């Protein structure tokens, strides 16, 4: 039996992972549950882990995997992925519906359960997206990961500035092309038409805040005219 706060936290983690593919930060959990300190989140996370609902992955910051759900959440149709899902007896549900439009530059894979997206290169300081002229290779991406009907592309991450958002050096991020963002979105931002960076976006009056998810990096505060949103994170692919 879970407490109300434990259920609220598990549901928040579930919804964030379903929407963004990565778990929320401890600060986001604290804010969502209206707690005064992160120590309360640590206690809730420990309780959920001890009861077998989640698993923290070793040697990775803020890496959380949902192992199972209470029966009420299970009926809502969310199924955790990976070997833990098979071990716990979950059966994935397939919802029939319209398939997203094929993105520009994508190639269908037969049978069509996935699309191949072009990997446009590495997102690193000093390399604007527009300067990457050649596709380095293609990568198969589940169609369900391609949100909406916009164009999509993939980038290889270099660096650890978003490690507490579950994004590690060497990961492949799937980006939907768009020029706008909501507060809290993880975006590809082009700074002064020169530098592309993957950061969490926030707007404060006429300024744009580009927040890292690593305390070793400071938040960058820039006038809005110096920042262009190039796309929003919609998925992440990791190889082991």
From TrEMBL:
<feature type="active site" description="For autocatalytic cleavage activity">
    <location>
        <position position="161"/>
    </location>
</feature>
<dbReference type="InterPro" id="IPR036390">
    <property type="entry name" value="WH_DNA-bd_sf"/>
</dbReference>
<keyword id="KW-0068">Autocatalytic cleavage</keyword>
<dbReference type="GO" id="GO:0006508">
    <property type="term" value="P:proteolysis"/>
</dbReference>
<keyword id="KW-0378">Hydrolase</keyword>
<keyword id="KW-0742">SOS response</keyword>
<comment type="subunit">
    <text>Homodimer.</text>
</comment>
<dbReference type="GO" id="GO:0003677">
    <property type="term" value="F:DNA binding"/>
</dbReference>
<keyword id="KW-0227">DNA damage</keyword>
<dbReference type="GO" id="GO:0045892">
    <property type="term" value="P:negative regulation of DNA-templated transcription"/>
</dbReference>
<dbReference type="InterPro" id="IPR036388">
    <property type="entry name" value="WH-like_DNA-bd_sf"/>
</dbReference>
<dbReference type="GO" id="GO:0006260">
    <property type="term" value="P:DNA replication"/>
</dbReference>
<dbReference type="InterPro" id="IPR050077">
    <property type="entry name" value="LexA_repressor"/>
</dbReference>
<feature type="site" description="Cleavage; by autolysis">
    <location>
        <begin position="125"/>
        <end position="126"/>
    </location>
</feature>
<keyword id="KW-0238">DNA-binding</keyword>
<dbReference type="GO" id="GO:0004252">
    <property type="term" value="F:serine-type endopeptidase activity"/>
</dbReference>
<dbReference type="InterPro" id="IPR006199">
    <property type="entry name" value="LexA_DNA-bd_dom"/>
</dbReference>
<keyword id="KW-0234">DNA repair</keyword>
<feature type="active site" description="For autocatalytic cleavage activity">
    <location>
        <position position="199"/>
    </location>
</feature>
<feature type="DNA-binding region" description="H-T-H motif">
    <location>
        <begin position="26"/>
        <end position="46"/>
    </location>
</feature>
<comment type="function">
    <text>Represses a number of genes involved in the response to DNA damage (SOS response), including recA and lexA. In the presence of single-stranded DNA, RecA interacts with LexA causing an autocatalytic cleavage which disrupts the DNA-binding part of LexA, leading to derepression of the SOS regulon and eventually DNA repair.</text>
</comment>
<dbReference type="Pfam" id="PF00717">
    <property type="entry name" value="Peptidase_S24"/>
</dbReference>
<keyword id="KW-0804">Transcription</keyword>
<feature type="domain" description="Peptidase S24/S26A/S26B/S26C">
    <location>
        <begin position="118"/>
        <end position="234"/>
    </location>
</feature>
<keyword id="KW-0678">Repressor</keyword>
<comment type="similarity">
    <text>Belongs to the peptidase S24 family.</text>
</comment>
<protein>
    <recommendedName>
        <fullName>LexA repressor</fullName>
        <ecNumber>3.4.21.88</ecNumber>
    </recommendedName>
</protein>
<feature type="domain" description="LexA repressor DNA-binding">
    <location>
        <begin position="2"/>
        <end position="63"/>
    </location>
</feature>
<dbReference type="InterPro" id="IPR039418">
    <property type="entry name" value="LexA-like"/>
</dbReference>
<dbReference type="InterPro" id="IPR015927">
    <property type="entry name" value="Peptidase_S24_S26A/B/C"/>
</dbReference>
<dbReference type="InterPro" id="IPR006197">
    <property type="entry name" value="Peptidase_S24_LexA"/>
</dbReference>
<keyword id="KW-0805">Transcription regulation</keyword>
<dbReference type="GO" id="GO:0006281">
    <property type="term" value="P:DNA repair"/>
</dbReference>
<dbReference type="GO" id="GO:0009432">
    <property type="term" value="P:SOS response"/>
</dbReference>
<dbReference type="InterPro" id="IPR036286">
    <property type="entry name" value="LexA/Signal_pep-like_sf"/>
</dbReference>
<keyword id="KW-0235">DNA replication</keyword>
<dbReference type="Pfam" id="PF01726">
    <property type="entry name" value="LexA_DNA_bind"/>
</dbReference>
<dbReference type="InterPro" id="IPR006200">
    <property type="entry name" value="LexA"/>
</dbReference>
């Amino acid at each position: 039996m879970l407490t109300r706060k434990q259920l609220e936290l598990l549901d928040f983690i579930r919804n964030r992972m379903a929407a963004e593919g990565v778990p929320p930060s401890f600060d986001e959990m604290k804010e969502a549950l209206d707690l005064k300190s992160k120590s309360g989140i640590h206690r809730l996370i420990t309780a959920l882990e001890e009861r077998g609902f989640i698993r923290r992955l070793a040697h990775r910051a803020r890496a959380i995997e949902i192992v199972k759900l209470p029966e009420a959440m299970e009926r809502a149709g969310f199924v955790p992925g990976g070997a833990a899902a098979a071990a716990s007896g979950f059966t994935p549900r397939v919802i029939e519906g319209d398939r997203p439009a094929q993105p520009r530059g994508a190639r269908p894979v037969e049978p069509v359960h996935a699309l191949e997206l072009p990997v446009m290169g590495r997102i690193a300081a000093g390399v604007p997206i527009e300067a990457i002229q050649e596709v380095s290779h293609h990568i198969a991406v589940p169609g369900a990961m391609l949100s909406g009907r916009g164009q999509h592309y993939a980038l290889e991450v270099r660096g650890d500035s978003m490690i507490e958002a579950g994004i590690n050096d060497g990961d492949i991020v799937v980006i939907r092309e768009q020029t706008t963002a909501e507060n809290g979105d993880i975006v590809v931002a082009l700074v002064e038409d020169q530098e592309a960076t993957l950061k969490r976006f926030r707007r404060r009056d006429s300024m744009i805040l580009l927040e890292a998810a690593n305390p070793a990096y400071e938040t960058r505060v820039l006038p809005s005219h110096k920042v262009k949103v190039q796309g929003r994170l919609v998925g992440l692919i990791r190889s082991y």
